[in-house]
Specification:
Blueprint lengths: L6 E6 L6 H8 L3 H15 L11 E3 L5 E5 L6 E6 L7 E9 L6 H15 L4 E4 L23 E4 L2 E4 L1
Parallel strand pairs: 1-5
Antiparallel strand pairs: 1-6, 2-3, 3-4, 4-5, 7-8
Length: about 160
């Protein structure tokens, strides 16, 4: 099988916590993870000019969203195309969208993008496969805090 055209990376905090990866494995149903995988399989194989609605949308500045219709409600995964990295998309924040204009979700994604641009935090290859053990998605990468708030360089950053 040929290598996919696109790679996907996920945001990690300065402490190495993969917040979007943990969200994907711990906050979504198996069916919703399957819907996301289907969308990613499509996006992995097509050129960027085909990343359009209803599957994808360019928002403001560098921010974009992967769009999924799920029975539990719309899912949005905010991300960006890192400059200088051809055929790479970085996932910054994922959630079930509950309002028409998800200002809070976009704010979290923009804050994470801002931190990455400042060299704070990083990214890891995103694992869309099912975990065989709890350590597959968290393990050495660390877990998000139980409260849903991640301590980050003295600032509190919402999930």
């Amino acid at each position: 099988m040929d290598k996919p055209l696109w790679t996907f990376r996920g945001y990690t905090t300065d402490a190495g916590n993969s917040l979007v990866q943990v969200w994907f494995h711990e906050n979504l149903s198996i069916d919703d993870r399957d819907l996301i995988r289907d969308r990613i399989r499509y996006l992995k194989e097509v050129e960027r000019h085909l990343w359009i609605r209803p599957r994808f949308d360019k928002l403001e500045d560098d921010l974009n969203e992967i769009r999924i219709k799920a029975p539990a409600g719309p899912i949005r995964i905010y991300g960006y195309f890192p400059p200088g990295e051809r055929h790479c998309f970085t996932l910054l924040h994922g959630l079930y969208k509950t309002v028409d204009n998800d200002r809070a979700g976009k704010r979290v994604a923009r804050e994470r993008l801002k931190l990455l641009k400042q060299g704070i935090g990083g990214t890891r290859e995103f694992n869309f496969e099912e975990r065989t053990s709890p350590e597959d998605s968290a393990g050495q990468e660390g877990q998000g805090s139980a409260s849903g708030i991640e301590s980050f360089g003295g600032n509190r950053l919402p999930n």
